[in-house]
C-alpha cells in the first residue's frame, strides 16, 4: 500500500488541468493582510539560494510574485515589514530528518504536512518551538515544491503561507520556464485573502 501512494499521488497531479497542485494556503495569527500596504521580497543577500534554484529562477519567481502583489494594490518597499520568503525543493526520495536545526530558538510559524522546502531566508528564525521534535520529509519522488511565506519580519510574526507541488518529468523544467513559473505562482495566490483589483481582474 505504501508503494501505491506515490503512484496514486503522481497520477492525481498529472491528470489535473494544471501540472501544479495547491498543497496548502493558510493565514496565521488572525492576520488581516489587507492592512499591509507595502511588501518586500527576500533576496539572496538575506540567505542562500535553495538547492536546485538558480539565480535566473529566483528572479523569475520573484517577478511573478511581485506582479501578483502589485495587482492587489500593494507597493514594493525595501524597508517594508511584510517580507515574502521563497522556498524551493526538488524531492527525489523519501527521507526524514528533524524539522529544526539543533540549537535554534524559533518563533511562531507554519508547518504543513511534512513539506519543508529550503528557504532563502532561514525559516527557523520564525518557526514555532513546539515543532522542535517534529520529523520532516526531505524527499518525495522527483516532486518539486515551491513555497511562499509572508512574515511580519519586524515582529517575527508569520502571516500567510502557501505551497504548490508538481511532478517533474524533465528535471525541474516547470520551475525554469516563464509560463510554468507564472502558473505556479498564480496557484500560490489562488486562495490569497486579498483579491485582485478590478482593473486587473478582467485579464485573469
Nutshell version of this structure?
By secondary structure, the protein is of the alpha+beta class.
Q: What report would you give on this structure?
A:
With 204 residues, the chain is α+β, with helices and mostly antiparallel strands. The chain is 21% helix and 25% strand. The protein contains 4 helices and 9 strands. The strands form 2 sheets. Strands 1, 2, 3, 4, 6, 8 and 9 form a 7-stranded mixed sheet that branches. Strands 5-7 form a two-stranded antiparallel ribbon. The N terminus is likely disordered.
List the helices and strands and how they pair.
Layout: H1 4-15, E1 21-27, E2 38-41, H2 55-70, E3 75-76, E4 82-91, E5 96-98, E6 118-119, E7 135-137, E8 143-152, E9 157-167, H3 178-188, H4 198-201
Parallel strand pairs: 2-3, 2-4
Antiparallel strand pairs: 1-9, 4-6, 4-8, 5-7, 8-9
Helix pairs in contact: 2-3
Coarse morphology: globular
Uncertain regions spanning at least 5 consecutive residues: 1-16, 130-134, 136-141
**What is the gyration radius calculated from CA atoms?**
17 Å
Order of helices and strands: HEEHEEEEEEEHH
Derived from helix and strand composition plus strand pairing, the structural class reads alpha+beta
Features:
two-stranded antiparallel sheet; 204 residues; 25% strand; 7-stranded mixed sheet; globular; single chain; alpha+beta
Amino acid at each position: 500500500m505504501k508503494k501505491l501512494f506515490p503512484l496514486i499521488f503522481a497520477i492525481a497531479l498529472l491528470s489535473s488541468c494544471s501540472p501544479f497542485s495547491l498543497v496548502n494556503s493558510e493565514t496565521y495569527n488572525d492576520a488581516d493582510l489587507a492592512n499591509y500596504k507595502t511588501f518586500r521580497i527576500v533576496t539572496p543577500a538575506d540567505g542562500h539560494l535553495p538547492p536546485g534554484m538558480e539565480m535566473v529562477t529566483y528572479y523569475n519567481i520573484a517577478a511573478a510574485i511581485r506582479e501578483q502583489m502589485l495587482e492587489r494594490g500593494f507597493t514594493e518597499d525595501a524597508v517594508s515589514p511584510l517580507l515574502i520568503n521563497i522556498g524551493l525543493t526538488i524531492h527525489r526520495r523519501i527521507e526524514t530528518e528533524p524539522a529544526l536545526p539543533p540549537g535554534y530558538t524559533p518563533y511562531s510559524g507554519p508547518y504543513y504536512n511534512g513539506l519543508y522546502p529550503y528557504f532563502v531566508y532561514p525559516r527557523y528564525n520564525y518557526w514555532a518551538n513546539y515543532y522542535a521534535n517534529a520529523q520532516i520529509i526531505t524527499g518525495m519522488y522527483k516532486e518539486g515544491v515551491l513555497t511562499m511565506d509572508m512574515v511580519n519580519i519586524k515582529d517575527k510574526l508569520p502571516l500567510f503561507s502557501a505551497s504548490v507541488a508538481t511532478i517533474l518529468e524533465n528535471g525541474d523544467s516547470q520551475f525554469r520556464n516563464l509560463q510554468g513559473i507564472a502558473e505556479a505562482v498564480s496557484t500560490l495566490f489562488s486562495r490569497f485573502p486579498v483579491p485582485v483589483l478590478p482593473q486587473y481582474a478582467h485579464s485573469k
